[in-house]
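All the exercises in this workshop are built on plain-text protein records. A learned vocabulary of local backbone shapes supplies the integers on the structure line. Once this layout is familiar, the rest of the handout is easier to follow. An example says more than a description, so a record of this kind follows:
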Amino acid sequence: MNDHTSSITGRITIQGKPAPDIEISLLPQPYRSGWKTIATTRTDDDGRYRFAELPSNHYWLKVHAPRCVNSVEWDDEGPGRAVSVAYGQSVQNADLDLLPGGTITGRITDEDGRPIAGEYVELTLVDKLGPPDDPLDLIGEESDFTTDSTGTFRIHGIPQGRYRVSIGVEIAKVTGSRREWRGSSEPTGRVEDDHYYHQVFYPGVSDRAQARVIDISPGAEVNDINIKLGKAFRAFKASGQVIEAGNRKPVSNCRIRLSHWVRGRFNPCRMLDDPCSTDEAGAFTVQGLVPGRFSVSGYVEGESEFFCNPVTFEILDDDITELEIRAVRGVTLAGSVIVKETHTESIAPMLAQLRLQAVSPRRDGGGDFREGVVNPDGSFTIHGLPPGEVQVSLGYGDASNYFSIVRIEYPDKAGETSAIPIFPPSHPWNRFRLALPERGLIGVRIVLSYNNGSIRGNINVGPRELDPGHTPES
């Protein structure tokens, strides 16, 4: 049977009425933003669509109707549903009924009534599990959620529910002076621009508990949600240069990492998005900093022999300039990978795709990350590591799923072979600690097991027809 004879057909409606000429994309499931579209079609006059010649797989049907929402379960990627197609089978009636989303409009002004342009407006859902400060992540362009030149905002496609509307920065969350919800994002000490406003909720209060709650029903439009902000606060910059230790040669294309001091320690460092990389002169600038203590370092990507020592500084009431980050030549971790089973010919293709990772923890909460390929003869070499503790693991990738580390052998100070036994065999991505001396470590042997087991079985379903996108309750 040809695996490409499967198809998906269904109908898109909005409150039970046909939705003609709606674009639908077919994507892999689980779906993530940016994933490549497999196929695209449009609904006919009756709202029906069809995808043909599909291989068996789990799919996500993405419906391009940004002002609509799912009627059953809202999804932060926009309207859509999951559909699974079995080998050689076709799925019919993969229908989806949508609801028109609600709309909220309003105007943001300063203390003197002047419009405030370019500020992001947030909605938070009331009566939900999890952090109360997590904004609703709606589909749309950034301009859909920011104020225009007249200070006006207009947010579409809002699911039914009760909401708070706010604008500005919750500075206690940014600095880490207050953190109520375990698992919420780490405070960064940064804001998005060169200025910020303290957070204000509609109708003009700073206390979340005193905010007026807005009810949104399908297709409803709520107007005149106007908020007046206080004064704007300045955000600061830190700038400097990354150079090679010794010869002071500038290091270009070096990614900049930032850590923020919170409650007696540095938070895990964050790799800053481009354009926060060094230029040809090794120069960099970090923007949007609020007063506080920070650590900044660099990361030279690729097959580099260098790591960067972090530099600490403090923002008080002005910009920081002339920071100097030194790139130091690191040491080498090298050795070989072997598989304890003897059937090496059958696993050679997967072994050739395997990579090893080495991470060296740092005092600023981050880690120097390096990766090395496993050569056809099993050898590997990883350069650019700082001496000290290094954590070794298999690299993230499909090939690593087939292997587990069972033992790591290495030469000790006396030249004898020591070993880190791992029992039971580890998860492929577990990390194991080695002490990396000043001279580096050569002759390491990483012993793997080959995960070649499988589970087979049958799923019996009663006479009732299953919804192809349905997930049974446990």
The chain has two helices and 38 strands. The first strand starts at residue 6 and ends at 14.
